[in-house]
Design a protein that fits this description.
Elements lengths: L1 E2 L5 E2 L9 E7 L10 H6 L23 E3 L5 E3 L6 E2 L6 E2 L2 E2 L5 E7 L8 H17 L4 E4 H4 L13 H11 L1 H4 L24
Parallel strand pairs: 1-5, 3-9, 3-10, 4-9
Antiparallel strand pairs: 2-6, 4-5, 7-8
Helix pairs in contact: 2-4
Length: about 200
């Protein structure tokens, strides 16, 4: 794991336990992978002249605890004991301000392309480590805590596949998954057809 410190964090409220993991997806520029845009956004160094999309977001002060690249490489921007600024206006199980009690994991991806097998493996391993350190009660998507405002991790993220990986490692952790829409039958099937892969 590589550590790139983000200034966009602060302390969690006193006595607030980490209970939730939020799965996000991000690509900068949109639908393009492998560049430094995500790192630059989370470290407040995004150049607004580098891409037209950046002009509208370069002043944002956001972060996540972790980023999982397309090849499964893991970057930590904010230690999980601290509060990263990833959820925005959000609510989970009637509790607002999800940043206070959640860990944000960004997957390098978008709504229109499947995620890579290496990303699911890295995510499962990270979730297992986090469950050893924190009393997790839920794993869900950004769209589920900010409905109508966010769509990530998107329709091509396979909650079913993530659940199967976790069941083989930590069955109790697999039961923490709250899939988008709540309908297991609607979850994407893994593996995706070859024609759906980038």
């Amino acid at each position: 794991m590589h550590f790139i410190p983000s200034p966009n964090h602060d302390a969690r409220p006193e006595g607030m336990a980490v209970a939730l993991v939020l799965i996000h997806a991000i690509s900068l520029p949109p639908d393009r992978f492998g560049g430094e845009g995500i790192t630059q956004l989370f470290t407040n160094t995004l150049n607004p002249d580098e891409h037209p999309y950046y002009a509208g977001i370069h002043t944002l002060r956001v972060s996540a605890h972790y980023l999982i690249r397309r090849d499964g490489a893991l970057i930590c921007f904010v230690p999980p004991a601290l509060r990263a600024w990833h959820a925005g206006v959000s609510c989970w199980q009637g509790q607002a301000r999800c940043n206070d009690f959640s860990i944000g994991i960004e997957l390098e991806g978008c709504d229109t392309l499947p995620f890579e097998p290496e990303q699911y493996l890295a995510l499962a391993e990270l979730l297992e480590r986090l469950a050893e350190a924190f009393p997790l009660r839920g794993i869900t998507g950004h769209a589920d805590v900010a409905p109508g405002r966010k769509t990530d991790p998107g329709p091509l993220f396979s909650w079913r596949h993530l659940r199967s990986l976790l069941e083989a490692r930590q069955p109790a952790l697999a039961r923490c998954i709250e899939p988008t829409g709540g309908a297991e039958a609607a979850l994407p099937v893994w593996p995706f057809p070859l024609g759906a892969r980038p």
